[in-house]
Structure formats: C-alpha cells, structure tokens
Amino acid sequence: METTMTTAVPKLTAIHPRIPSNSFSLGFSLTFPAKKSARVKQTCSPSSHISLRVSSSSQSQAATEATKVSSIPSEMKACVYGEYGGVEVLKFDDKVSVPEVKEDQVLIKVVAAGLNPVDGKRRQGKFKATDSPLPTVPGYDVAGVVVKVGDQVKGLKEGDAVYGNINEKALEGPKQFGSLAEYTAVEEKLLALKPKNLDFIQAAGLPLAIETAYEGLERTGFSAGKSILVLNGAGGVGSLVIQLAKHVFENFEDLPEKFDVVYDAIGQCDKAVKVVKEGGSVVALTGAVTPPGFRFVVTSNGDTLKTLNPYLESGKIKPVVDPKGPFTFSQVAEAFSYLETNRATGKVIIHPIP
C-alpha cells in the first residue's frame, strides 16, 4: 500500500511494508536530480542503591543552567544497573561519584539525555565482551553545560552549551559513566556547541542518530542523481537520513522502482536487497545482513556535528522528538520500555535531569 504526500516542490512517498506486529516500519523513497553542473509504569527506584565510585537563545539557556551549579559536588544522582537484564535492573542512586575529568575532557552538567536502541541492547548484555565494567550509568547522547575543562581542552570553556555522543566507539569500551546522570565527563573532540536555535531537549536527541545517518550516506557514496529508500523513516536515524539526503546531499523528486541506496534502520535487509539496483548499496543498522547489504558501527565525531550545525541553525534539518516525551528522570525505565516497543516517532528524551 502506498500513500503519497505532496509538498510544493518535492514528492515524498511513504511505504508501509508488511512487518511483525511487534515492530513498526515507515519507509520513504526519494530520488535526487543531478545538478545541472556536476507505557509500562516503571521507575528507577530511589530505594535501591548500587555503589558506583570512580578513581583517579542558547547563551541565556546555558547561563540559566550554569547558575544552578554553584559548586561541583563529589556525588551525584544517576540511573544505574549492576547486572544485565530488562528495564527492571535500572536503579536510582544518589550516591554516585562525579567522574573525574581527564586532560582532554570536559565535565558536563547534563540538562537532557537521549535514549538509543544501543542503550537497551547494551543493558541486556549483548555487548558484554567489549563493554565497560558493571555497574554502569547508561546513556550515549547528551546536551548540557560545560562546568569544568581539562588542561588540554582548547576549544571549549566553562558555561558553553554543548551536545554530543559521549562514546567514540558505540560497542568497544563505552563509558562506564554515561549521560543518564547529573554530570558526565566527555572528550572535547566528541562535542560541538549546541545549535543556537535548538533547546537542550531537541539537541539531546541528535548526536548518535545524526552521526549514524551522515556516516551511512557517506559510506554508500550517495550523491545527486541517485535514489534512496529509507526503511523506518519515522525513527530517530531514519527521519534524519531523509533530511540529510534532501538538504545535505541534494533535493528529491519521483519514486523509481529500484533504488541506488536502501537505508534499512528497522532490520529488513533481506527485503531491502530485493529493491536495490545492481551495483547499489544497502545499509543495515540492525538484524541479519544479506549481501550486498553491509553494516557499520558509527564513530562519534564532534566535527560531524560542527559540519551539520549550519543546517540545524538554518532550520533545514530539524530534530524529531517523540511527542510522548520528554520523560522525567524518574521515568527512565518507562522511557526505555516505550523505546523498546519500536513504536517511537523520532527520539525519546529524558528531561529534566536533577
């Protein structure tokens, strides 16, 4: 079944493939002309504590958040899990040590954090062989205010509003202290200044998803004159693939029968390869990979965010935040339960974080 939605210039076609009842997929296909010249009620329980210790306008928003930090405490509130499992392993702990800041890092007072499917898979123990030690504070995406800088930090200063994916490698030794806490320590190279026109909630939902969308399009060699089909175009990554393909990699028009690129963000690679042109590419973010499909794990890079900031600040690229959110800090488990239904539209955000 096809449903066509038409705007003044481009035509976008949404495709709803047959999928299992416990998942959701919304596909968008785009063709780009070449240039003339080339909820379950669960919460992190405050009654359960897991000991976790460590060893050794935008400006007004940042100023407001910064004034809340009179001094950096030694302990903070965080959502923590000490064993792998479902959302029930998430616990609330208000005695977590604030991470120490290395020379190339900044300490961020977290204002909002975005959830990603990788958070759930990591919590379930699917990457335990390369994971950081337990107990763990989860969370990859962050938006907040710099409150302390390491000696080697050159481009950021206290009071800066920033956003980023705090783990350079998503599956290889991700940080033990993630973004679902009052503070998190992050390498400067993984961060960018928050786009001036976005609030912290919007910014928190961007980093991992927009980096994944951008890197995937780059790896396929996508360019003007090529067509693309996006599976799960309503999701966090898919919604950004569509916008990046349109505004960063050129404008779109009609739907062809076969595609140069299929971006599978839902796990239907076996079907996706049937609609790709000979010599085309299929990006498979999840599920089994069928040739010529390929998978990659995104590398967090603040330079990518800096490259895309002008598109965000101009309004050409817009963050998509799930309308059920933001979820409060006490609703982290509920937010994860919702995300894991595969029915979220855009990003699931946690805000405020006390």
Automatic annotation (TrEMBL):
Keyword presence, NAD: yes
Molecular function via GO: oxidoreductase activity, acting on the CH-CH group of donors, NAD or NADP as acceptor; zinc ion binding
PROSITE patterns from the UniProt entry: QOR_ZETA_CRYSTAL (PS01162)
Tree of life domain: Eukaryota
Keyword NAD attached: yes
Domain Enoyl reductase (ER): 85-350
Record-linked InterPro entries: ADH-like_N, AOR-like, ER, GroES-like_sf, NAD(P)-bd_dom_sf, Quin_OxRdtase/zeta-crystal_CS
Sorted UniProt keywords: NAD, Oxidoreductase
Family: Belongs to the zinc-containing alcohol dehydrogenase family. Quinone oxidoreductase subfamily.
Protein name: Enoyl reductase (ER) domain-containing protein
Organism of this sequence: Salix udensis
